[in-house]
Amino acid sequence: MIMNLKAKIWLTVATIVLMFSFFTLFYFPDQQAKLLLRNYNNEVQNLANTVSLGVKIAITEQNFEGVQTALEFVKGDPRLEFISMLQTDTLWNDTRTSYTISEKLFKTYPENNTYGPATVTDERIIVKRSPFESSMMTGAILLGFSTDVINSSKERIKITSLLVSGVVFGIGIIIGFWLSKNISDPVLALRNAAIRVGEGDFSTRVKTDTGDEIGELGKSFNKMVKYLSKTTKKLRKANLTLAATNDTLKNTVQELKDTQAQLVHKEKMASLGELTAGIAHEIQNPLNFVNNFSETNQELIEEMLQELMRGDTEGAIALARDIKANEERIHIHGKRAGGIVKGMLQHSRTGPGHKEPIEINALADEYLRLSYHGIRAKDKTFKIKFRICFDESIGKVEVAPEELGRVLLNLYNNAFYSIIEKKKQSKQAFEPMLEVTTRKLKNAVEISVKDNGLGIPKQIIGKIFQPFFTTKPAGEGTGLGLSISYDIITKGHCGELEVEAQEGEFTKFTIRLPLVNNSKE
């Protein structure tokens, strides 16, 4: 079953909240309870050892008041259940070949204590023994402390964990609604509007009051629908005029009307196809944003778990508040993703671009850095060696910078994708390399982009400039990038776009732009 964007957003948020709730409601309280019990056992044992040492010293010095003082060391502790001083006797048999150890109560507090020398730890009480031995007496101190303090601490931990889980659950609901409203709903509305236009309803418009990149995309959509509506009306009017002017050409006019109708349909479908491809690209940006936010939340959750395991509930609550503050982080990362969407909107214009004198080397370098930083934003471990060779004698060339930049960005992205895939598949040491070269020919400027990635098989190299042909997995490519790039270079700039490749070794794309209309410096 294919999930829509809204379902994916809610699934991501729900997964994070459930994982966090599991740790805070089950794993963390159990670990804290074990830690508290271990510390409590150590504390009781240390007290027993302290009393035992005091008794031993007092008996050695024959200070019986000191013995009483040592026993009273823990009497004021509200957790005390009992403290007993045991006397240990060694009973030999008649032949003195074996013996037994006998213990009896020497002193105890309280005096009506019902606990005997054989008392051991259970769920209600923790019992610790500390033996002592002196020249006058051998024995042990038996100390029993109530576990009520442990039980109350466990309850506090459970309540705190429940409160933290409730806070995070509430924040998750808020974030889910925010993401759904600001990302999913506008994209779905744009999709539904595209479907209605495809059905012939040119009165369809989408809201463009969001003020973000999706709003800009909506404005572009509305302009396209308006243009399609005007074009259709003009063509229909022209058909009617031709039919009324000459009845003798009725059959010809009818054929022309049919041909015009087909052209209108093809134009509309082509525009809708490019729009759909643009929407497919746009959807990736919100999804990447949601993934980045999920990673940030996971890191915060890990930090919160560490704080809770250390018993720092205040720190854990502070981290929970940090999760709430992620709305600001969402805004920051959203602006970053918005810049990418804005660039894609600029590069998705289907009309002829305005040409102006541009530094070809600067343009090639700018879009190389844009593409590289885009890849690095997704995978910070990605590294590559660049070999840049720019011909400084080229100077400025009259081109449409947005369209040529779109071509370069597509070639760079394809090169990085091929290199990354080869690195995943390679079992040997592999050094990624990307070469970008410019040079001035007699009547043209040449730009080449060469990578040492997967290359292109011979049987498909003739198809790569065909619309909708792609070798990428479903959902990762539309098959329009190279097709549109080819049209931009050959039709928009009267140039050439060639490819040379060897499977498993390299791929090299070469752009040649004529210098006929170039401005002179």
Beta-strand content estimate:
15-25%
Strand order of the largest sheet: 6-8-9-11-10
Terminal-residue CA separation: 60 Å
Let me know the number of strands.
11
Overall form: elongated
Going by helix content, strand content and strand pairing, the class is alpha+beta
Q: Give the overall average pLDDT.
A: 78
Order of helices and strands: HHEEEEHHHHHEHEEHEEHEE
Computed over alpha carbons, the radius of gyration is 40 Å
| Tally of DSSP helical segments | 10
The main sheet comes to:
5 strands, mixed
Helix fraction, binned, reads 55-70%
Low-confidence residue ranges? 263-283
Question: Could you give the topology of this structure?
Answer:
Blueprint: H1 5-60, H2 64-71, E1 80-92, E2 99-109, E3 125-133, E4 138-146, H3 148-198, H4 213-245, H5 250-309, H6 313-324, H7 326-347, E5 356-359, H8 360-378, E6 385-389, E7 396-399, H9 401-425, E8 433-440, E9 444-451, H10 481-492, E10 496-502, E11 506-514
Parallel strand pairs: 6-8
Antiparallel strand pairs: 1-2, 1-4, 3-4, 5-7, 8-9, 9-11, 10-11
Helix pairs in contact: 1-2, 1-3, 1-5, 3-4, 3-5, 3-6, 4-5, 4-7, 5-6, 5-7, 8-9, 9-10
Characterize this entry briefly.
This protein is α+β, with helices and mostly antiparallel strands. It has 10 helices and 11 strands.
